[in-house]
Amino acid sequence: MSAEEKLRRAATQVVDLVLTEDCAYLDALPDAVEIEVVTPLSAVGLALDEGTANELAKAVGLFLSCAAPVARGMPADLTEAVAELRAGLREYRATRALEGPGRGRR
Fold it and tell me: How far apart are CA 9 and CA 2, in angstroms?
């Protein structure tokens, strides 16, 4: 599995966990967590649906920076999914750096 596929899989896991149709998970989050993560996570979802891999990486980076201050208030399953997303972004960025400028970009 490529680094981009791992990033997309991890991003999908977090989006699907929090932004479900019934909003039950989202409503159960502590208010501080919900306030910090909903908007950037929506951007991740949009990038998954309509963006390039680089746009997804930017949205994930924004989400992770917003989620960091409230990480202690997250439920364990969200904390684990965010950790996988962070690892996926790190691997994607490392792969992009090895490819060099202009190679493999969408």
Answer: 11
- What's the gap between Cα 52 and its chain centre? 14
| Three-class DSSP category at 10 | helix
Rg (CA), the chain: 14
Residues 6+ apart with CB under 8 A from 30: 70, 73
At 99, is the pLDDT very low, low, confident or very high (cuts 50, 70, 90)? confident
Provide the angle, in degrees to the nearest 10, between the axes of the packed helices 53-67 and 3-18.
Answer: 50
Query: Is 0.85 topped by the overall pTM?
Result: yes
